[in-house]
Design a protein that fits this description.
Structural class: alpha+beta
Largest sheet: 7 strands, mixed
CATH class of the largest domain: Alpha Beta
Low-confidence stretches: 103-120, 163-169
CATH superfamily of the largest domain: Chloramphenicol acetyltransferase-like domain
Helix content: 10-25%
Number of domains: 2
Oligomer: single chain
């Protein structure tokens, strides 16, 4: 018998930590290979982590509700026929197709994870608890791995000393009305909030809007949707059409499909399309890998599969890795215009808004046409207005000039 360590996996490129939501197995339980063992929450995904071995769970090292860094030991398993090993989370390899383009810095770059060495040792929840009670990290003896200070350590310190002195006066509650209700922030909502703040702090966001005529796509979908659903078992949406059009535009405008680094801008000659999926209490962005190489039917099936598993909370860690661009179909929620936040470390995010019939000028006459707004947020370190406009021109013409012959089967 040997022991193996289960570690917090990497659940997305810009994710630095994850929160254990709940353990699906308890100490002493037998675990089969690939059987879900723990549910982990980040700003990108709520995922069940499968066991990399078959054996017995002998020790849980990180309890439910704790937030730890990627690579932190979560538990130990006793595995037959092995020596003591560490089960490293699968890491996405760098794609050999990437191209490093020299960059000319135009604006100062904010570090997405700038913090002190002490700050790196604690979760945001622990930092807030320390600040709220006027405590310094050096006052607390950590009992976590490597001396990491956990929430329980701070609570134990407070219980022992009883009278912590606040470092500063705490703001009064927003309201003391007894009818008010305090809703506790979930782990996934807190992770999303922190990721959004990080993104805005890292990338100087610029924004653009384009109005497009969707007549051709609307007519085709209306004519085909019943037959499509009868054949494939799910409804035909506009999203697979938009994915194909956006992929073509990205390959013609590679800086929209890139990542900023201090060494240069990394161009991606392939498209891993992130699709924003709205859940009742959060947002998840699963990724369709090599979407630019897929036919329409395969795209539609991949999209339906990812969206279904996202809503059922059965996405795998690999499902949210490697995205190069994000498409956000806010039109499904009734939005007509909005500004999305870039999904780090990507260069841009495009939103397809609600399709509405409006009077428009066509050949010096007024006609009623189904119109849609495209809105895009982009990283102004990488992309200027000209590059953004060229990309949006390509998407607009791809939609307005679309015919059934454009469909890549």
């Amino acid at each position: 018998m040997g022991r193996t360590t289960l570690k917090m996996p990497q659940l997305g490129e810009s994710v630095t930590e994850g929160t254990v939501d709940r353990w699906l197995k308890q100490e002493g339980d037998m675990v089969r290979l690939d059987e879900p063992i723990v549910e982990v929450v980040t700003d990108k995904v709520n995922a069940e982590i499968p066991s990399p071995f078959e054996g017995r769970l002998v020790r849980i090292k990180v309890g439910a509700g704790e937030t730890v860094a990627i690579g932190t030991a979560l538990a130990e398993l006793e595995v037959e026929g092995t020596t003591d090993v560490a089960a490293e989370p699968a890491q996405p390899e760098a794609d050999k197709r990437d191209e490093l383009a020299p960059s000319t810095p135009a604006l100062p770059t904010a570090s997405p994870a700038a913090s002190s060495a002490e700050g790196d040792r604690v979760s945001p929840a622990v930092r807030r608890l320390l600040e709220d009670n006027g405590l310094e990290l050096s006052q607390i003896t950590g009992t976590g791995g490597g001396g990491r200070v956990r929430r329980e350590d701070v609570i134990a310190y407070l219980a022992e000393h009883r009278t912590p002195t606040p470092a500063k006066a705490q703001p009064a509650a927003a309201s003391s009305d007894p009818r008010d209700e305090l809703v506790r922030i979930s782990a996934v909502r807190r992770q999303i909030a922190e990721h959004m703040v990080r993104s805005v702090s890292t990338s100087p966001h610029a924004w653009a809007l384009r109005e497009v005529d969707v007549t051709n796509l609307v007519e085709y979908r209306v004519a085909q949707k019943d037959q499509f659903e009868a054949r494939h078992g799910f409804s035909l949406s506009y999203v697979p059409f938009f994915i194909q059009i956006v992929c073509d535009a990205l390959l013609k405008n590679p800086y929209l499909n890139s990542t900023w680094t201090e060494e240069g801008i990394i161009l991606k000659p392939y498209v891993n399309m992130g699709i924003a999926v709205a859940l009742p209490d959060s947002l998840i962005v699963p990724v369709i890998k090599d979407a630019d190489q897929m036919g329409f039917i395969d795209l539609a099936h991949a999209l339906n599969d990812l969206a279904t598993r996202a809503r059922n909370k059965t996405l795998r860690p690999d499902d949210v890795r490697g995205g190069t661009f994000t498409l956000n179909n806010t039109g499904a929620l009734g939005s007509v215009a909005g500004q999305s936040i870039i999904n780090q470390p990507q260069a841009a995010i495009l939103s397809t808004e609600s399709i509405r019939k409006r009077p428009v000028a066509v050949d010096d006459a007024v006609a009623i046409r189904p119109m849609m707004n495209l809105t895009m947020s982009f990283d102004h370190r990488i992309i200027d207005g000209l590059a953004a406009s060229r990309f949006l021109n390509a998407v607009q013409s791809g939609i307005e000039d679309w015919t059934p012959a454009s469909l890549k089967i």
